[in-house]
Specification:
Blueprint: E1 3-6, H1 12-23, E2 27-32, H2 36-47, E3 53-57, H3 63-76, E4 82-85, H4 100-128, E5 131-136, H5 140-143, H6 149-169, E6 174-181, H7 187-190, H8 194-201, H9 212-223, E7 234-237
Parallel strand pairs: 1-2, 1-4, 2-3, 4-5, 5-6, 6-7
Length: 243
């Protein structure tokens, strides 16, 4: 199969995505910002599928670090055929109380990090005339959400970046899509107050939060040949939130 790079793969959705791609037979590079031990644990789980799996730490918001990491990946494994831009953070707060750094940090990781990896890895894929890029957006990037202006703006930016990249890379055989998860069980949502989570659950048709594996299954589809004629799309995986 191919070589997949998954950012933010030490836990949650990223870890589930790495395992799913390994299950499909891809060698996997698991990026993390600092939790290399956790990423190594997920890499070991991936290797149980008989594939190569390597954990690497670099900051996706650092363009030079991304460039160096991808050069190392190319030299040791080959040109990536799948890129999943999953790394992201939240620093919630109301707009009127949100500090500049609070806004900038979220944009830097969530949006600029996606740009860095898409532009650098996308260039490799274009030269190889093949590849699939899946960017992790969010339903709040479509609807907005009180207290998450920075996060919503970053994810709306990811959607715009996805559609633009799809137009630029498509002629060279590279597909670019996004997934917009709704409420998913993760470290990010664990810190939400119970009343907030219950309010969100009440809006979900399937009456449950999503699991990381629900998102990973969507990534597996978009990365596969079954989605060979799909690009520039945003796949909402939210259990029917607000339908």
């Amino acid at each position: 199969m191919g070589i997949a790079v998954v950012t933010g793969a030490s836990r949650g959705i990223g870890a589930a995505v790495a395992r799913k791609l390994a299950e499909q037979g891809h060698d996997v590079v698991l990026n993390c910002a600092s939790r290399i031990e956790k990423a190594e644990e997920v890499a070991a789980q991936c290797r149980e599928y008989g594939v190569k799996a390597v954990a690497m730490a670099w900051d996706v918001s650092d363009h030079a670090a991304c460039d160096q990491a991808l050069k190392e990946i190319k030299a040791s494994l080959g040109v990536p055929t799948i890129l999943v831009n999953n790394a992201g953070i939240t620093k919630d707060g109301l707009i009127m109380r949100m500090g500049e750094a609070q806004f900038d940090d979220v944009i830097r990781i969530n949006l600029k990090g996606t740009f860095n990896m898409t532009s650098l890895c996308g260039a490799m894929m274009m030269r190889a005339k093949a590849g699939a890029i899946i960017n992790m957006a969010s339903v709040v990037g479509i609807t907005g959400n009180a207290g998450q202006a920075n996060y919503a703006a970053s994810k709306a930016g990811v959607i715009g970046l996805t559609k633009s990249a799809a137009k630029e890379l498509g002629a060279r055989g590279v597909r670019v899509n996004a997934i917009a998860p709704g409420l998913v069980e993760s470290d990010m949502t664990d810190v939400l107050p119970e009343d907030v989570k219950n309010a969100m659950l009440s809006q979900i048709t399937l009456k449950r939060a999503g699991k990381p594996e629900d998102i990973a299954n969507a990534v597996g589809f978009l990365a596969s040949d079954a989605a060979a004629y799909i690009t520039g799309q945003v796949l909402v995986v939210d259990g029917g939130m607000g339908v």
